[in-house]
Amino acid sequence: MKQIEIQSLVGSYSFSTNYVGKVMGMGSQKTTGSVLIRQVKDSTSKVWDSGQKIFTNQNFEAIKGPLNPGQFSYKNYLANKKIYHQLSLNSANSISTASQSLSLRSYAENLERNAFKKIEASTLTSSSQAMLKALLFADRNALEDRIKKDYAHTGVIHLLAL
Length: 162
What we know:
By secondary structure, the protein is of the alpha+beta class. The chain has two domains: 2-100, CATH 2.40.50; 105-161, no CATH class. The protein is 29% helix and 29% strand. Strands 1, 2, 3, 4, 5, 6, 7 and 8 form an eight-stranded mixed sheet that branches. A hairpin with a 2-residue loop joins strand 2 and strand 3. Helix 2 runs antiparallel to helix 3. It is globular and about 55 Å long. It starts with a strand and ends in an 8-residue tail after the last helix.
């Protein structure tokens, strides 16, 4: 049984939420190291918080390199952060426990999550909500591709990251 502590949220996408996790142990043997965790979204999945413990028997998978020559290598990017393996987890192959401590990172993530919920519950149009998320949290995922291209074409895409 692998014991992993969620360190940080990498990103939330249509079909999964990705995290960096710290491997705390394997069975009764203590160990350390980082792993990329891909939490597959299903009807029972809940977002994990920093500091939360995850238990699983899933095997580590190697992170795949780029398919095309000259393409960005996410594998090399993660290797520079000393992350060499990943886990694909869901509610059927993992067990999560409540976070024991509220770290500054988990507190900030909770604030961001609550702000996202309030923005989504507002009466703003979906494009206005997306723009607000992009400006406040540098979250470009919600923006339409046309808007991202327009910002990139005019050379002001970096304003969304400030």
